[in-house]
Amino acid sequence: MATTDKTSTRDRLLDAAGELFYREGVSIGVEALCRTAGVSKRSMYQLFTSKDEVLAASLARRLPAYEAQLVPDALEAATPRERILHVFERLEKAAAESAYQGCPYLAALVELKDPEHPASVVAGGAKAGMKEFLRARAEEGGARDPDLLARQLMVVFDGASARAGARIETLDGLTVTTATTLLDAAGMN
Amino acid sequence: MATTDKTSTRDRLLDAAGELFYREGVSIGVEALCRTAGVSKRSMYQLFTSKDEVLAASLARRLPAYEAQLVPDALEAATPRERILHVFERLEKAAAESAYQGCPYLAALVELKDPEHPASVVAGGAKAGMKEFLRARAEEGGARDPDLLARQLMVVFDGASARAGARIETLDGLTVTTATTLLDAAGMN
After folding, report:
1. A159 vs B155, B168, B184: nearest CB
2. Which of chain B's ends, N or C, has fewer CB atoms near its CB within 10 Å?
3. First to last CA, chain A
4. 135-164 of B, contacting A, C-beta below 8 A
């Protein structure tokens, strides 16, 4: 072969996997995955021990971009309250896109139904990271019970993203309004 | 054959399907489904045109029991506020069971990723029925914007059930506390 670039094969496989699992669900088979990625099964199994590992790695690969979209660095100067509300503004913007299918991490957890699956571990970590971001901002902003507020906000985030992804809700300000009510009730500036 | 009871074959198939799809996900194949139900594929295809129709019918069959669990008739004498909070108390009770995997209707919608799938139509109807129950109670209780409040409560219900089902949240009063805050903010008695 003229070129054998393992890094780019890995990237191509994970990008295709991320998109395909998001669009079609985690039950997509190895055949369809490799066909879409333009990667042979042999190449896939040289890089990963199983489809489960591909799924886990594709979710991990997507995480920095996912977090940057919801929590931009540029907002570090904003108040804790603004930073929390910004997450919901970004969620609503993302949910308005025609390809939106909800949060990929919650979807993976719902579909896999197995907290010990390697991809569930990645997804659970993504969710825990986001909750910790909200909890830390709630604490900075003087919320009475930062952990409770963060749990409430995660419930709103996940419920809204699942419902919007399933096309049974059009957010249109719903999560920003709801988060504002919860921030106010928590006594947060 | 000694007995050919189509009704009981149908019931057995749908009960097994409902349990299996809930526990393992909607991607379970026809082989596993028929094996678990103790029904031949031939019998299945005499009753239903496709696995999709079995899934839709199993969700529809489960709906009356699901609704009765969350919204008992016996509570008709309670206030609208009590009836709303009772839904969340029941959700928390259900979510504490070890076999809990979240709301079966939301899970089907998340997994199928197709609002036009016959099972998505059933699931969407279940969700719309619950939202209408909450909206009607919100209106009776004098909420400022009954539709907004019902949408907020559905987001809390679905977010909490998905997170508890995925084992990334232990509700422990979380949804009752959150619903109370939202009812108060909506000016509901």
Report:
1. B155
2. N
3. 62
4. 148, 151-152, 154-160, 162-163
